[in-house]
Amino acid sequence: MSVTPSDLLHNKKDLNKKIDVEDIDLSEISIEDLVFNKKNYKNYINLKSLLEGVSTCQISDAYNGISRRSGVIKELKPINRLRVWGRITTCKTNSDDWGTSALAIDEANDGDILFIKTNNSDMSVWGELASTCAKANGVKATVIYGSVRDLDALYYMDYPIFACDYAPNAGSALGLGEINVDISVGDMTIQPGDFFYGDETGVVIIPQSLFKQVMTQTLAIKVKELGIIDAINGGKTLSQAAGLK
């Protein structure tokens, strides 16, 4: 049986399709559905529709309701105020070793978030050249628990960056750090493959084992908040809409 061009166009998947929040179905999703693999179109679109419409605030609230943890790393701030999500590739190095950051770019999977922890913020391990290379290699964003530089370029790049600090000086291409290992930040342990969500407010990290549960709760919070907004628009006060009166 021959396939015509019109058949191909008819069967083409619209990866930009968006589902209304009340119609989102997360019953069969997994963390693997963050990336489209040609077999998970329904789950991918449902999950993408949710993540495009929520925030770190709602995801943190959902995670807190499940685990009594926020998932937030307060020191990390958005450099260029871009929203992004994905699974984490981890990297651990000293601030005088930007070479490990370069090696980590090659190890990250397509669509991953590169999370780099340094021992301090004295020197930068990331900047314009690394961002340009990472984006070209399919990395979605970089998170530096430490310092970045080249802010004059990073501010205007279409590549999300989150960091604790910035400094103009850099170390050397030593390549002495570790990639895809568990890393500790405060009382949080971050494992390769965990879920990252970042926006203008900050960042949230969710253990991959709780991903589906947290996403389901995030959807419930989103629906509830939309109902409160509708009630306020209908003339109720916030206290009334929230059930305080």
UniProtKB/TrEMBL annotation:
PANTHER family: 4-HYDROXY-4-METHYL-2-OXOGLUTARATE ALDOLASE 3-RELATED (PTHR33254:SF4). InterPro entries: RraA/RraA-like, RraA/RraA-like_sf. It comes from Methanobrevibacter smithii DSM 2375. The lineage of its organism: Archaea, Methanobacteriati, Methanobacteriota, Methanomada group, Methanobacteria. The keyword Methyltransferase applies. The keyword Methyltransferase applies. Gene3D superfamilies: Ribonuclease E inhibitor RraA/RraA-like. This is Demethylmenaquinone methyltransferase. Transmembrane segments: none annotated. One of its GO terms (biological process) is methylation. One of its GO terms (molecular function) is methyltransferase activity. Keywords: Methyltransferase, Transferase. Pfam families: RraA-like (PF03737).
